[in-house]
Amino acid sequence: MEFWAAEGHHRRVPRRHGEHVQQAAQLPRTRRCATLANRDQPAADRFCNGGRMPEFLAEMTAILRKHRPAGDAITVGELPNTPHLPDVLQYCMSARPPRTRSAWCSSSTWLTATWARTGGLTRCPRTWTLSDLRARVGATQTLMDGTSDGWSTAVLENHDQARCAESAKMLAILVARLSGTLFLYQGQEIGMVNAPPAWDVAEYKDVDSVNYYRYVRETAGDDDDDDDENPGALRRARAALNYLARDHARLPMQWNALPHAGFTDPRATPWMRVHDNYPTVNVKRQASEDGSGLNFWRGLDPPNEAVFVFEKMGRSEKLVVALSFIGEVQPVALEGQFHEKARKTSVKDYEEERLDALQPCEGRIYMVEV
After folding, report:
1. How far apart are the C-alpha atoms of 102 and 77, rounded to whole Å?
2. pLDDT above 90 (res 68)
3. pLDDT for 323-365, tens place per residue?
4. How far is 33 from 42, CA to CA, in rounded Å?
5. Fewer CB under 10 Å: which end of the chain, C or N?
6. Omega before 197 cis (within 30°)?
7. What whole-number distance in Å separates Cα of residue 100 and Cα of residue 94?
8. What's the mean pLDDT in 261-287?
């Protein structure tokens, strides 16, 4: 952290580094296994949320203050094994000693099934209801209620979850309008999806995927029944990988329609296979397509450095103020500000008045009924 904080780069600090060592001396020599039939036992209580976490967080805060005194750095933590609210809040509350003014954001990926390594894969595919989604969104949105200095995040996809984009634009509206800092994962903005079901299981490279499929094969043998009513264990395992494997989020980013989707040199062999749909789903193509997923995201948060449009609301009418700050004609979409209500132009500095463009350094004010 000393090196990366001084250089001003992102640094991912292993969550469990030091934690396991300090806890080892405190843990009992034996423990009761929850499910003896499963060779993989839950162990999160052995290496997460230990008693020295406040000490480690304080150390991280001290390093940030030392190297980033202007406050242009934050700490962001993932809490995959922290189900209890008091534990979550200790990471999210920025002003609690000894971590004064160090923000720690808690992220929840609430649209995908709970990932529990082989256990999680064994339990899927799983059906979720809209009520489940409402409950999870509500939990993240009310997390900071009653606090004075906490902060949360809005997350839909990450590197440890499968893709969720079957209705990418609708989901974009959902997550982009939630409270908290938005994290947009690579490929999410162009609607990248899971690997095709037809891919061979050998295409799954993630260690959890490999170990899970090997485990099923060792315990179930060649049980690969193709009966749709009663599929064999290996077929169910492949369906689970296609549904939830982390590999889906780790396919190469699809930049263009060149070999390997422009991710690497055409002569190279990427570690993971590029999705079959890269010729049509890629950044370059979507950047020039009206209505594409990428441009839809841009519309949700337009990086417009030329035009400033705002409203002032009254009881029976509102002002719509449109201003161009550069010396070139700028496209705008003012019609959407009026919603077919009666309007009149109160102030303008050009005779020509187009609702789809502003002239160089033009300003207008509209009075609109509400």
Report:
1. 12
2. no
3. 999 999 998 888 878 877 888 999 999 998 999 899 999 999 9
4. 8
5. C
6. no
7. 6
8. 96
How confident is the model over 103-120, as a mean pLDDT?
A: 44
Give all strands of the β-sheet with 307-313 in edge-to-edge order. Answer: 307-313, 317-324, 363-369, 343-348
- Residue 364's alpha-carbon distances to 248, 308, 312, 368, in angstroms, are 48, 11, 14, 13
Residues written for the chain? 370
Q: What local confidence, expressed as pLDDT, does residue 122 receive?
A: 61
Distance CA 153, CA 181 (A): 4
Q: Which of 311, 325, 321 is nearest to 361 (CA)?
A: 325
Nearest to 22 by CA among 57, 56, 52: 52
Instruction: State how far the Cα of 246 lies from the Cα of 115, in Å rounded to an integer.
Output: 9
Q: What is the mean pLDDT of the chain?
A: 79
Query: Which residues lie closer than 8 Å to 112 by C-beta, 6 or more apart?
Result: 161, 162, 164, 244
129/137 Cα distance (integer angstroms): 13
Query: Which of 111-115, 128-132, 187-191, 268-272 has the weakest average pLDDT?
Result: 111-115
What does the alpha-carbon distance between residue 34 and residue 356 come to, in Å, rounded to a whole number? Answer: 64
pLDDT number for residue 106: 47
Whether pTM > 0.90 for this model: the answer is: no
